[in-house]
Write a structure and sequence with these properties.
Elements lengths: L1 H8 L2 H11 L5 H18 L8 H24 L3 H28 L6 H25 L19 H16 L6 H18 L2 H16 L5 H28 L14 H19 L9 H6 L14 H9 L1 H23 L6 H12 L6 H16 L18
Length: about 400
């Protein structure tokens, strides 16, 4: 209930930070109530004074139209209206907070206290809090009761790794001025430890890739870059050759992500994607918002039972059909363009859209209501972060006119 109290009494920016911090360990219904109160207060107190820029108006129009079409289409094809109402409410909260964050950020960009500071700090605290809770439960050999607590605490999903990836690794790189230098290495080590105990191979690989990209692009001397790149390539290739078989077929190894012949996790994911393709072909207009949890639980191609698709495109295709596919393609185009645009401007913020897009490949970020709020929050940061947070150094100097 602390999240509800903070949402009710604090200004939007601070209330949003408090809600983001407490969401992972809050009851799902309490978290939804806090997000709803925060959104309602913003609509009453701040929305009438908001100046909507043209780009923001276009984005709000597209997202709102998608939400209305998704709910209307789901109302026609869905057979479980109780679930539809519950899941649609989560979508409304997520999209509503996305719009509120985006409009709030664009209207306070001129102030010294940048809006991304409180959001970045909140996501970092949230990741630490969730990781500590999950590691404590693991150490005590306890399993959380997901009906009374939250699925975010469950060790069977990648949620803690996703939060750690963005809250403790990506955002400190994107907005280095918002985090004290002495905390960056401990944050990274803690994030990697959380991913390791959560057994998220993809998150660990993305963390290594992000850190390597950041280090290489911080070197000014092109010759040093080439030498370091060559050494890393040789050592990496040698290590792969020596440990290829052991790493490939060890299910706990990061290298096992490339094994699609014997690795259990990879084969299960292939079975999920194959079943999603069958469901999409059988019902190209989808089965309605929230239907994937029942459909994927009866997947004949997997040994285990999985309520979600572990892939955002597969989830949207099953639930919303062609509308979901079109929405994902628009998201793919947006994040790809933002990544390329920021990379060409030597902006470190290119890591945020790049890794957010990559995460959609191995997790359905809209399946869980709490995780969806973090997804919409990060997407709002991508759209509203216009300044170069931290310049990257081009590998090849660009000649300038005198």
């Amino acid at each position: 209930m602390i999240a509800v109290f903070c949402a009710a009494v604090l200004p939007f920016q601070r209330g949003l930070a408090a809600v983001l911090i407490l969401l992972p360990i809050s009851n799902a219904y309490v978290g939804a109530m806090a997000a709803g109160i925060l959104l309602l207060r913003w609509a009453i107190t701040e929305l009438p004074r908001v100046v909507v820029h043209r780009r923001a108006a276009v984005v709000v129009g597209i997202v709102s139209a998608f939400l209305l079409l998704a709910i209307a289409q789901s109302a026609i094809v869905s057979s479980d209206y109780a679930r539809l109402v519950s899941e649609s409410s989560q979508w409304v909260l997520g999209v509503g907070l996305f719009v509120a964050i985006m409009l709030h950020n664009q209207n306070v960009q001129q102030h010294r206290y940048a809006p991304q500071q409180s959001i970045a700090h909140a996501l970092a605290y949230s990741a630490v809090l969730l990781a500590v809770c999950q590691l404590t439960l693991k150490w005590l050999d306890m399993s959380p009761d997901e009906t009374s607590a939250t699925p975010m605490l469950s060790p069977t999903n990648n949620y803690v790794s996703i939060l750690a990836l963005f809250g403790l690794v990506v955002l400190p790189m994107v907005f280095p001025a918002e985090f004290h230098p002495k905390w960056r290495l401990p944050m990274f080590c803690f994030a990697f430890a959380a991913m390791y105990f959560n057994e998220s191979r993809a998150a660990m690989l993305l963390t290594i890739a992000a850190v390597g990209f950041r280090l290489i692009n911080s070197i000014r001397d092109i010759r040093a870059v080439l030498v370091i790149g060559a050494v890393i390539t040789v050592l990496g290739a040698s290590l792969l050759l020596v440990l290829a078989k052991a790493a490939l077929y060890d299910p706990q190894s990061v290298g096992s992500v490339t094994d699609f012949q014997t690795n259990y996790s990879n084969l299960e994911r292939l079975g999920i994607l194959f079943y999603a393709w069958e469901l999409f072909n059988a019902n190209p207009w989808g089965s309605g918002i929230g239907s994937s949890s029942d459909l994927f639980s009866s997947n004949p191609y997997t040994i285990g039972t999985y309520p979600d698709a572990h892939n955002m495109l597969a989830m949207l295709a099953v639930e919303l059909g062609w509308l979901g596919v079109a929405a994902y393609l628009m998201l793919f185009a947006l994040l790809s363009i933002e990544t390329l645009r920021r990379l060409l401007k030597r902006d470190a913020a290119c890591l945020l859209p790049a890794l957010l897009l990559t995460t959609t490949f191995y997790d359905a970020l809209l399946f869980n209501g709490v995780l969806a709020i973090y997804f919409w929050t990060l997407l709002a940061i991508v759209i509203t972060s216009t300044r170069a947070a931290s310049r990257l150094v081009l590998l090849v100097p660009v000649p300038t006119r005198s």
